[in-house]
From TrEMBL:
This is DUF1772-domain-containing protein. The keyword Transmembrane helix applies. GO terms for cellular component: membrane. The keyword Transmembrane applies. It is found in: Membrane. The chain crosses the membrane at residues 12-31, 62-82, 88-113. Belongs to the anthrone oxygenase family. It comes from Coleophoma cylindrospora. Keywords: Membrane, Transmembrane, Transmembrane helix.
Length: 173
């Protein structure tokens, strides 16, 4: 039996938000940050200014969309748990409840929340202080922070990408 139109829309939104989040993080890692890091060798102030613009845009647009994606996936988990708890998909030679796979999708996508709070926020604060000319952050530290931000931010792409793949797989059943 095919899912209803609202469920299909939720599936599409869950897949899309996790894929866009993952793709944006990868784009920042592969394209934007390397140019900022290169720029920081001669003009760290300009490089951090560019990072700051990217950061503000991501914080204002990407973060709310990602949170909405987590909530959509959580809705799908609850919906399948309540309405069809015995509905299964084949995973290799095992049958797994659909709601458990949506729970996995939700958990994968939601990993960006604690990672951002614990790992990324301290780097963000130091770079913001440098951008605003506050605190003790010097040029060399700002350069190192840009590299650190790039390397730690990309970690968020893999679980979000996995959520998109799992979600697409589930929607195809």
């Amino acid at each position: 039996m095919s899912p209803s139109a609202p469920i299909r829309i939720a599936q599409i939104l869950g897949i899309t938000t996790s894929a866009v989040y993952s793709g944006t993080v990868l784009y920042q890692y592969l394209v934007m940050l390397p140019s900022y890091i290169s720029m920081s060798q001669t003009n760290p102030v300009k490089a951090v200014e560019k990072w700051y613009c990217m950061h503000i845009m991501s914080k204002g647009r990407l973060a709310p969309a990602a949170l909405a994606g987590v909530l959509i996936n959580a809705f799908l988990t609850v919906r399948y748990y309540i309405s069809t708890p015995s509905s299964v998909v084949l995973l290799g030679s095992s049958a797994v409840a659909v709601w458990k796979m949506y729970a996995l999708t939700t958990a994968c996508f939601a990993t960006f929340i604690p990672w951002t709070a614990k790992v990324m926020l301290p780097i963000n604060f130091e770079l913001e202080h440098y951008h605003q000319g506050e605190g003790e952050v010097g040029d060399e530290r700002a350069k190192a922070l840009l590299v650190d931000w790039r390397n730690k931010s990309v970690v968020r792409a893999a679980p979000a990408g996995a959520a998109a793949v799992i979600g697409a797989w589930l929607a195809s059943w």
